[in-house]
Amino acid sequence: MKDLRELPKFRDGISYIYVERCKIEKDKEAIAIFDKDGKTPIPCASLAMLMVGPGVSITSEAIKNLVNVGCLVVWCGEEGVRFYAQGMGKTRSAKNLLLQAYLATHGDLRLKVVRNMYEMRFKEKVTENSTIQQLRGLEGSRVRKTYETWSKITGIQWKGRNYDFKNWTRSDPVNRALSAANSCLYGLCHAAIVAAGYTAAIGFLHTGQQLSFVYDIADLYKTDITIPLAFKTVKEGTQKIETRIRYTLRDSFKEQGLLKKIIPDIEKVLTVTDKNGQVIKPEKLKVSETFTGFLWDPKQGIISSGKNYSDEMNEKNNKRRK
To answer: What is the rounded distance in angstroms from the CA atom of residue 245 to the CA atom of residue 114?
Structure first.
């Protein structure tokens, strides 16, 4: 396996590529796309997410290359139907996942994480006496105001957030643009979460779904990115909204440097202190950077995975014989 330190940093990569009606094959250590225009090599080691649309054929060797570099593969349909599949990410350490689980399972610490999220959304300090219910109310009001503001700026009528995946065409253009834009944002946040060694399933505000943490992180950016771009895209026309919003988002992600922000923002969200005012860091948890890791023992707790139990038993038997 390639040295993990040789892999490119997530922030330096390409946000995502969307392909449809083509064939994807292995190309040395990368992949290549074959369509009517010929062959297009893709440096998958620096790719955060590959969106596979209708009419795509992909080989198992190409998938293997994508998984080996931690690229998230997303199968998406024209009607918004999506299926996720991902590799192990670009890290083999469990320290970030253990920190995430630790904070999520301790109520007082989880509350601090939630407050961090709201502070990042509001871009101001949240008072400690503010309840979660009050913060949710403020957030709801902020989002509604954002919709109303961009409705006035673009002249696009806003009737509220309403869509149905089972009948995609019944949604109005703005809702379709929002759904397509948020879908791309979710995928990119998912890729960042996996790349950094966290899990998408353990959320703090959202809970009970496989993508709970994805929704938590994506919500940090919606009012600044997907909502404005959805209204702007619809103002320019209602034809091929989903395709146009994807291209617009790709350019926006690059201009705003979103890849450089997501993982540091996740770290900021999960930076909380214990009762003694000490920041809880992954290094304080018992983790291993090796491939074998540690073993759990009911009496001794965490022990080295290199411990030889056969030698231990032989030693005990020898003592008994003596």
So the answer is: 30
Count the residues in the chain. 322
Residues 6+ apart with CB under 8 A from 318: none
- Rounded Cα distance between 270 and 97, Å, is 11
Given a contact cutoff of 8 angstroms between Cβ atoms, the answer to whether 150 and 227 are in contact is: yes
Residues 95 and 205: their CA atoms lie apart, in Å, by 21
Other beta carbons less than 10 A from residue 23's beta carbon? 16
Q: Which two tokens stand for residue 224?
A: 């600044």
| CA distance linking residue 225 with residue 256, whole number of Å | 9
* 28 and 17 Cβ atoms separated by less than 8 Å: no
Q: What is the per-residue pLDDT across 273-311, written as a single tens digit (0 to 9) for each?
A: 988 889 998 766 665 555 455 666 666 766 665 554 445
Asked whether the beta carbons of 198 and 100 are under 8 A apart, the reply is yes
Regarding beta strands 72-76 and 82-85, do their DSSP bridges make them parallel or antiparallel, or are they unpaired? antiparallel
Q: State the Cα–Cα distance between residues 75 and 98, nearest whole angstrom.
A: 29
Give the whole-angstrom CA distance, residue 35 versus residue 57. 11
CB contact at 8 A, 46 and 13: yes
Instruction: Please tell me what DSSP assigns to residue 272.
Output: -
The answer to whether the beta carbons of residues 193 and 96 sit under 8 Å apart is no
Q: What is the mean pLDDT of the chain?
A: 81
Compute the average pLDDT of residues 75-89. 56
pTM: 0.73
* ∠ Cα 141 177 261 (to 5°): 70
User: pLDDT tens for residues 230-288?
Assistant: 999 999 998 989 889 988 888 888 888 887 889 899 999 999 998 888 999 876 666 55
Instruction: Locate 134 and state its tokens.
Output: 């009050």
Give me the phi and psi of 135, to 5 degrees please.
Answer: -65, -40
- Do residues 241 and 248 touch, judged by C-beta distance below 8 A? no
In the chain, the amino acid numbered 32 is A
